[in-house]
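User: Just a sanity check before I run the rest of the batch. Below are the structure tokens for the first item. I only need the designed sequence back.
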């Protein structure tokens, strides 16, 4: 008998602390760099304040002259943050350009796990650790957009990998159906819907 578990994690983390306190924490944990100084619209400026207040780890903020904007943070690499933010901004607007980035300070080093957010990566690692404590085998599969899913069972590694990948694809279906066709095409073109094994531990 196999047990299936799904944990999908959002890429943007909103904290419940007071904005001023949250911004102080964000600034203390991350380096904010303005890449392309420009005058922001009122909506862009308000959202940029949210990015500064709630942004964590690696993040990117994109804007366009038409007033569009998009940001992602809490990712494990700057490339992933840029890619997802740019993709989101570009889905309905042209000429999106990067405005600012966040990078963790040296005291908080990066730990890349297939482009997952830091929160999702830690959650996946914790689930794998707790799931295999009693000698069970488990594997974690993830794509680059929706998050990760886990599969556990007392089975050989090859079958464990196949089951985890199939489960990841099954869990994707309902979420993909909610996206617009152009969004699906853009994500697929970037390879962000490809499931892959990111963590595995087999019973000895």
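Assistant: Here's the designed sequence for the first item:
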């Amino acid at each position: 008998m196999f047990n299936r578990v799904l944990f999908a994690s959002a890429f943007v983390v909103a904290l419940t602390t007071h904005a001023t306190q949250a911004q102080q924490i964000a600034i203390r944990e991350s380096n904010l760099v303005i890449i392309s100084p420009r005058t922001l619209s009122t909506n862009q400026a308000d959202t940029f304040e949210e990015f500064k207040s709630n942004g964590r780890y690696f993040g990117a903020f994109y804007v366009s002259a038409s007033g569009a904007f998009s940001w992602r943070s809490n990712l494990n690499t700057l490339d992933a943050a840029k890619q997802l933010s740019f993709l989101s901004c570009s889905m309905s607007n042209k000429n999106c350009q990067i405005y600012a980035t966040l990078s963790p300070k040296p005291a908080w080093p990066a730990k890349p796990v297939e482009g997952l957010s830091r929160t999702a990566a830690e959650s996946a690692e914790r689930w794998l650790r707790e799931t295999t404590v009693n000698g069970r085998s488990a594997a974690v599969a993830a794509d680059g957009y929706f998050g990760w899913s886990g599969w556990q069972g007392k089975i050989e590694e090859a079958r464990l990998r196949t089951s985890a990948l199939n489960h990841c694809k099954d869990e994707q279906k309902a979420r993909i159906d909610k996206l617009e066709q152009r969004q699906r095409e853009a994500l697929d073109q970037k390879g962000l819907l490809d499931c892959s094994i990111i963590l595995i531990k087999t019973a000895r």
